[in-house]
Amino acid sequence: MLLSPTPEVLDQCSLLLDAATKDLADCRPETDDKPGALQEARQLHAAVRHARRLLDSALAFHEAWARRFGAISAGYTARGEPGVVDRGFRLVAQG
Fold first, then answer.
1. What residues contact residue 8 under an 8 Å CB cut-off, 6+ apart?
2. Which of 13, 44, 52, 65 is a Cys-bridge partner for 1, taking CB atoms 3.0 to 4.6 Å apart?
3. How are the residues of the chain apportioned to helix, strand and coil, as percentages rounded to the nearest 5?
4. For the whole prediction, is pTM greater than 0.85?
5. R_g of the chain computed on alpha carbons
């Protein structure tokens, strides 16, 4: 799902990750019965941490470009902050 990060997919992915987190919090693998379970849980934890870092970086990138776009398009406010541009809608065209 993260390979096709549309807003709808990311919303759905967020819900699935929340559900998985709750399920994992209730699950404590017994290493005697399942020797690979603890290692698998650690790998999943690392993968989720990595996905979080990627999503946080994408958010920071988007916010920085929104500030730059505001400064270029709307100038600065009286407080010296970049202006906010209401983009209203998206237009997608193929030709």
1. none
2. 13
3. 60, 0, 35
4. no
5. 20
Whether residue 84 is contained in a domain is answered as no
Decide if 37 contacts 28 (C-beta within 8 A): no
The residue segments making up the domain with residue 59 are: 7-74
Rounded Cα distance, 70 and 81, in Å? 9
What amino acid is encoded at 94 in this protein?
A: Q
Residue 81 lies in a domain: no
Q: How far apart are CA 73 and CA 69, in angstroms?
A: 6
Q: Which of 60, 52, 64 is nearest to 2 (CA)?
A: 52
